[in-house]
Amino acid sequence: MTYDDNNIFAKILRGEIPSHRVYEDADVVAFMDVMPQANGHTLVVPKAASRNILDADPAVLSKAIGVVQKVALATKKAFAADGVTIMQFNEAPAGQSVFHLHFHVIPRVEGVALKPHTGGMEKPEILAANAEKIRAAL
After folding, report:
1. Closest Cα partner for 134 from 11, 28, 4, 32?
2. H helix runs in 20-118, sequence order
3. Catalytic residues
C-alpha cells in the first residue's frame, strides 16, 4: 500500500482544511477530532508522510509518542478526566479510516461510555472551546 498525500490529514497539515490545533512543533501536530467520541478527543498526527505505524520511520514514532503523552496529560487535566484512552489503528480491517498515521487521545470519565463514531460533526464553537482548554493545560 502506498501513501496518498490527498488524505484529509495531509490536507489539514498543509493548511488546506481548517482545524482546531492544540499543539504543534517541527514534527507533530495535535488537533481536535471533528467527530469526537468524548469531550476533548484529540488527534496527534506526525507531519511525516506514512500510512500508519506499519510503515512509519521509528524516529517519527519516537517524536510522536512524546506528544501523545503530553496531550494525554493535558486532556486529562483540562477535562477533569479519570483516565485517558489512546487508540491507533493500522489498515482498514483494524478500523483505520484515514490513512495517515495518527493517535486518538480521548479523556475518559468513569461510567461514561464513548460516543459512537457516526460521522456527525461537532459544532465548531465547541471544538474551539475544547481546544482552548487543552492549550491552557499544556
Report:
1. 32
2. 58-78
3. 102
User: Which residues have a Cβ under 8 Å from the Cβ of 37 and sit 6 or more positions away?
Assistant: 104, 106, 114, 115, 116, 117
**Residue 116: what residue type?**
P
List of E strands, the chain: 21-24, 28-32, 42-46, 83-87, 103-108
The 10s digit of each residue's pLDDT in 73-127 is 999 999 999 999 999 999 999 999 999 999 999 999 999 999 988 778 999 999 9
The residue range of the domain holding 130 is 8-137
Residue 111 located in a structural domain: yes
Contact 48, 63 (CB under 8 A): no
Residue written as grid cell 464553537: 125
pTM: 0.96
- What secondary structure letter does DSSP report for 29? E
